[in-house]
Predict the 3D structure of the following.
Amino acid sequence: MPVIEARGLRKTFDTTIALDGINLQVEEGRILGLIGPNGAGKTTALNAILGLTSYQGELSVLGRDPWRQRNELMLDVCFISDVAVLPRWMRVSQALDYVAGVHPRFDRAKAESFLAKTTIGRNSRIRTLSKGMVTQLHLALVMAIDARLLVLDEPTLGLDILFRKQFYDSLLNDYFDRNRTILVTTHQVEEIQNVLTDVMFIDRGRIVFACSMDQVESGYSEVMMNPEKVAAARMLKPISERQSFGRTILLFDGVDRQQLGGFGEVRTPSIADLFVAIVGNQSGETRGAAV
Amino acid sequence: MNSESSAMPESLGRQQVTAAAMASTRPFYWSLRRELWEFRSIYLAPLVAAAVILSAFMLSSFAGIWEPALRLDPDSAKIAEPYNFVALLLMGTTFLVAIFYCLDALYGERRDRSILFWKSLPVSDVTAVLAKGAIPLVVLPLITFMITAVTQWIMLLWSSMILSASGHSVAALWNHVPLFHIWAMLLYHLIAVHSLWYAPFFGWFLLVSAWARRAPFLWAVLPPFVVGFFERIAFRTTHFVSMLSHRFAGGHESAPFPASGMSIDHLMHVNVGEFLTRPGLWIGLGITAVFLAGAVQLRRYRGPI
């Protein structure tokens, strides 16, 4: 059974269409990156999955209807929606007490041992912690919950590079296993490229691209062209073409790498470049900013 | 709580039973504690009020203001007066605390976006709203009772000490201040009026708190005024306003108001049967239930502001 399954998922706000009939399926043990420009519908999709917003169409998360069964679903799902959501008035010890009190799958010792590696004081109020520490605390709480699906919406926004790196390292080393599934949205695509097993692009409320990272590696190639061979390479119908340091870079979908080897330097494209190639061809200004 | 968690690693069946019990009561218990952590004024405000009045009372005994009454008791009401005053002041304090608590309870969590954190945990909107409703309806009346009772007890002890120190008998004092009757009356009054009879007020404030995008106080207070004025101008009647003031005044002439003096006579007049058969009581509770159900739905649909 897929962890998340959506068919024809729609959500409209007054006049705008946030989700325009999304179909998606996420299997267990995957780390899926949901990438899209601002206003593409990422957060709406996550909110629907988390039971925070109503929707039309079919959606099942761990076999449950998130809108009708949010509190049961939250036994198996954790989310960090934005670093700012931990209540500022709360003390660290109160946060631990509260989650231990209401969540039957919370392992307090685990959260404590994770916190012991940080400089967060048990008695501090959350408002006195730095942004990075709040994220560490939230992550400590979430990682100590034996959940099956973890949803992260811009979890590392506004953190410095050290915290961001540490965040994903902890997630991979201390949390993730084959029985868990992680769904993450972020603008810092390059940093999580190696973390993801699957990637999905969303644009204007539609899924425009869905692929495993293995498929990206085997199917897509980026060639930094030898200048004299550009014309010949164009015959192979690259999906995008850009200039970098005076050299032409072509991106190919499903063209044999050996064949491309003759044109120049072949490598696997980054998610960011792939995103620009697939999503960003029209109206560049808003798109470019998103990646 | 501890016994429950230590009983966990047993057979699977037992585990399911404890899990089921946990699913219903533990989230509610922790939601209540959460409210007390966040809104410390729930107990700090009445404590401060009690401390202020207690120190004023002690000072007054040195100044000799109560002394004639203590010594000669020509007028028994005068002896009981400060005790009633304490009860009144503390009830007024906690009533204000209740109103401001209700206005912030479902509004503040949306404004600071912490609602996303609360909703990421397996606590239903019903549990969350009921826990918030329990603060003005159950917790605050109980806190008011306990703090008032302790304050009155200290006052009586203090007066007795002063009296015996100056060589007077304390019997007259204890006769005129029948603490247990005062406490029984107070508890009855708090449950009947402050909890059950005022419930629609708190329900309304919670509903507005769940609904308003800004200025919940104005949204809670202005519409009743508008309705009142509208009625006055359109129909030249004042049913709505008089209904509200009737509700606020405690409902009935026979409503037990300890402010008018607490004595054994008054205890005799408390008519529980009459109170429980008032249609107004049950209509009010019905309206409260509707308001709370609305607040639950709003909490479900409304995201952070």
In short: Chain B has one domain: 26-301. Residues 4 and 21 of chain B are 9 Å apart (CA to CA).
